[in-house]
Design goal:
By secondary structure, the protein is α+β, with helices and mostly antiparallel strands. The protein has a single domain, classed as Jelly Rolls (Sandwich). The chain contains 9 helices and 22 strands. The strands form 5 sheets. A 6-stranded antiparallel beta sheet has the order 1-19-16-21-14-13. Strands 2-3-10-5-8-12 form a 6-stranded antiparallel beta sheet. The protein has a 5-stranded antiparallel beta sheet with strand order 7-6-9-4-11. A hairpin with a 2-residue loop joins strand 17 (about 295-300) and strand 18. The relative contact order is 0.15. The model has no long low-confidence stretch (mean pLDDT about 95). The chain binds 2,5-dihydroxybenzoic acid. 2,5-dihydroxybenzoic acid (GTQ) binds near residues 97, 116, 165 and 167. 2,5-dihydroxybenzoic acid (GTQ) binds near residues 76, 116, 165 and 167.
Length: about 350
């Protein structure tokens, strides 16, 4: 018979002494951490949280007086999840920041393996250039900077311009795959006229010999808000999904996959007074209110959001959205990663 079943279970003190003896050999017992390592349901330290835009804007303008875009390289205030302070992340896998560029400033050209999205929030007259093509940044535009593409931002207008940056920084850090380099010049040469990529790849047509695999980022790098609005308005006369309202995802038009392999992005319309039924999914999402106002009930937490406010909904927490006035919400998450790995789940109540 097994000794363990004969004798008394070894005292806690004896176990602890054992753990201490193996510790210098870089060993630790699984049974002390198993339930945390393999949880019954997703457990993240990330919390539901909201950042009010008027306050964000004030602090960002203050940052504008303290440091130039040139010195900062990117003048950004990072939105850190209150449950993940010090980690420069808004969810376990994704980063969010609010970037300011003042009239006359340039954020110099560089590239990195981290993928980035921009959602333009405030002001006009700025541009982003991606691999030699510029696009004027207009409010609500969704612009992407795929991995390893050179990008610089500039403001040739006379107003401060602010946008939300969404990057896969924590994911790339986790994978140990981060590289960065500066371009030879601060500002990229313009290689193609503005609108070239959208004309070639974004009108339900493609260059005749063009072929692409599903994981490649799209050649379309700007999704103008005018088109997003037109799409949402076009379906808003129908019946809203009880859990999502009218929700569309941004795609690579050549493949139907997400614009970039690591980040999915969405635009959603909720009619005035509409209340979604409880819904949860394994991708944590970052939302920005582009129009209207409302409330997000995330578990026990109520987040009241207004114009340009940003809020985060952690993995597997039940979400109910309530629109006050009709709402348009932008959101992004790591859903494409979870789906390709066979991990993504949702639950509708
Ligand atoms: O605009 O290239 O918020 O490299 C963080 C890292 C923005 C950018 C961020 C970046 C950028």
């Amino acid at each position: 018979m097994n000794r363990m079943t004969h004798d008394a279970v070894p005292a806690q003190a004896e176990r602890r002494a054992f753990y201490q003896r193996i510790d210098p050999h870089h060993l630790t017992p699984l049974w002390e951490v198993l339930s945390a390592l393999v949880p019954k349901t997703p457990s993240t330290r990330a919390q539901a949280a909201l950042w009010s835009y008027p306050q964000l804007r004030d602090y960002l303008m203050e940052a504008g007086r303290l440091i130039s875009a040139a010195e900062a390289e990117r003048r950004v205030l990072i939105l850190e999840n209150p449950g993940l302070r010090g980690q420069s992340r808004i969810t376990q896998s994704l980063y969010a920041g609010l970037q300011l560029i003042l009239p006359g400033e340039v954020a110099p050209a560089h590239r990195h393996t981290q993928s980035a999205l921009r959602l333009v929030v405030d002001g006009q007259g700025a541009y982003t250039a991606v691999d030699g093509e510029r696009t004027t940044m207009r409010r609500g535009d969704f612009i992407i900077t795929p991995a390893w593409t050179f990008h610089d931002h500039g403001n040739e207008g006379d107003e401060p311009v602010i946008w939300l940056d969404g990057l896969d920084i924590p994911l790339v850090e986790f994978l140990g795959a981060g590289f960065q380099e500066k371009a030879g010049a601060e500002v990229q040469n313009v290689a193609r006229p503005e609108g070239d990529a959208l004309a070639r790849y974004g009108h339900n047509m493609l260059p005749v010999d063009f072929a692409q695999t599903a994981s490649d980022p799209t050649r379309v790098f700007v999704y103008p808000y005018t088109q997003t609005r037109a799409a949402l308005d076009g379906i808003a006369g129908g019946t809203p999904d009880p859990h999502l309202g009218f929700k569309l995802r941004y795609v690579n038009p050549a493949t139907g996959a997400s614009p970039m392999p690591t980040i999915g992005a969405y635009a959603q319309q909720l009619p005035a007074g509409f209340e979604t039924r409880s819904y949860r999914c394994t991708d944590s999402s970052i939302y920005l209110c582009l129009e209207g106002e409302g409330a997000a009930q995330v578990g026990d937490t109520t987040l009241n959001f207004g114009l340009n406010d940003i809020f985060v909904v952690p993995s597997w927490q039940p979400l109910q959205l309530q629109a006050g006035r009709a709402c348009t919400l932008f959101s992004y998450s790591d859903r494409p990663v979870q789906q390709v790995l066979g991990l993504w789940r949702e639950q509708r109540e």
